[in-house]
Every structure is written in C-alpha cells, then in structure tokens.
Design goal:
The protein is an all-alpha fold. The chain contains 19 helices and no strands. Helix content is 70%, strand content 0%. Helix 3 packs antiparallel against helix 4 (72-93) and helix 13 (220-228) runs parallel beside helix 16. The protein is elongated and about 85 Å long.
Amino acid sequence: MLTKTTEKVDMFEKIVLPRSSSLRLKKVVLRAPRDGCLKGLFKSKPRTPADVVRQTRSLLIELESNAGRGGTKRDEKMAELNKLIQEMKSILYGNDESEPDVEACAQLTQEFFRDNTLRLLIICLPKLNLEARNEATQVVANLQRQLVHSHLIASDYLEINLDLMDHLISGHVLESEHMKKFFDYIQLPNFDVAADSAATFKDLLTRHKSTVAEFLSRNYNWLLGDLLLNRSNSAVMVRYVSSKDSLRIIMNLMRESSKNIQMDAFHVFKLFVANENKPPDIVNVLVANRSKLLRLLGVFKADTGEDQSFEADKAEVVKEIAELEPQAPVNVSGELYKDLVI
C-alpha cells in the first residue's frame, strides 16, 4: 500500500511539480499514515466503572487529609469529585439515552465496597456542596439495592461496619426531614413496621446523648406540637395543658426572636386556651397576663401560605382570652417571667 502511494507521488512530481514542491509533498503523504496510526495508538480509553470508583476514592482520601486547606487547587479537585459522583449516578441510574447496564453496575458496586469508599464518602459528605451531597446520597441509596451474583454485598459491608450507621444517624438523620416521619411510622396499623419504627426511634434518641440533647433543645416546639396535636395522644395533651409551669414556658417561647419558634409555640399555646376544662391555675395565669398576651397576639403575623388558618386560630384565642374570668384570686407568680417588649 505504502509502495503504491510512493509510486503515484513520483509520477505526479514528474508531470506537474517542480523539484522543491515535490519533496515537500512526498514528506506529507508518507508521514500522514504514520501520524494517523500514532494518534489512534495514544487515544485515551474511556473510564471503566471500577476506574470511576478508584478515582473517586483517591479524591476523597485527599479531601479528608487536606480538610482545612483551600485554594484554587482544592476547588479543582472538588469539581472533579463532583463530576465523578455524577458519573457514578449516571452508571447506576442510566440517562435519557440508555438504561443502566447490569454488568457496569455490578463492577461499580464491587469496587465501591472493596476498599472503604462508602466510609470515605459518608465522612466527607459535610464537605461536599449541596448538589454533590444529594447525588452522593442517591448513589449510596442505589448501591444498597444492587445485586452482585444474586447477593447484596452492601448488606454484608454494613454488618461489619455498624459504626457507619451511628455516624449517619448522629450527623445526618436527626437533622433531616425523615426524623419527623417517625411519628407517622410508629402509628401505622402494621404491627411489625410500627414496632421496628418505635425501636429505631428509641435508639435515635438514646444512643447519641450529647447530639440528641442539642437536637431536642433546638426542635423542642415542633416535637411537642406533633405529639400534642395528634389525636391518639389526647390523654397526654390534656395532662400537659393542665400544667401551669408548661404554660409559662410556652408563653415565654412565644416571645423568642425566632419566627419559627414563635409560631410553633403559638400552636401549642392555643391548646391551653381551647381546653374547655381549664384548671383554675391555668385560667388565672391567662387572666393575669391578658393585656400582655393580647398585645403580643396583635402583632403576630403568619408566614405566607398559612395566613387564613392562622388568623382564624388567632381570632379564637384572642376572643377566649378576652372573655376569661378569674376563678380564684390571681396569683402574681403566674405572670410572665420578663416584661413584654412589643
């Protein structure tokens, strides 16, 4: 092939080209096949699923060891890590053009659980940006369902790395929206599901004492509101709204600077006011603080979206407080702890 090409060039030179031009043309023609071969020879291969996991693991190790360092180089590494996480997600979930390949998913899963990539990813989750965290969570969730030779290797890995569950629970589950769903799960009619949910909920609140204590202090109002507003807890609710000390706490929480705390406290406060069988102590605390409460409620505003229901509840609360009559001499100790500042 190369000999024939050379012969044609020689013939073309003799007929058309001067000597200097013909030499240049011969070099170009003879070099072209070799250049094309070399270009194909050194062309980069596409990354295999195992390669993607290995590169991800390498960047996670680097991210963990250089946690406090910043700069352009770190930003570049983070951008590359984000791309790799997106690539893993694409392999596991497929894309608009194709469904996930079973063999590729199996390769990725095996490599992922071979050298503690899951541990590294969980530890580094707080360091990732929001989009990367969401995609990493989807990757991990998918890997839990991936069968390799009809076997869930993720299950085996977690059985010998139970501390990862503790890390996830203490660092992420308590702060997620899923925490609130336990109140629904515990009351499901399916006994097995309800019992498992109750046991898990108990572990969440008892195994990580310092983390849970901080969580409860920040989320006291919505936890309390969810418990008391649930019909199945009516006995607990009646007992709670009969406590003068509880009423004092809730009234003070209504004056917190946080709008969320104010609103959550109001939804609990209205239970005290709506109770048709208020003990005398509760009535007297409300009467003693009537003017302050009415002033406070007068400037209460709801977030957009619950205006109508809130305004209706507030109107009922104001009307009830305004019509209350003391049932015994007003106890000065029932007043709010601090003066109201409107």
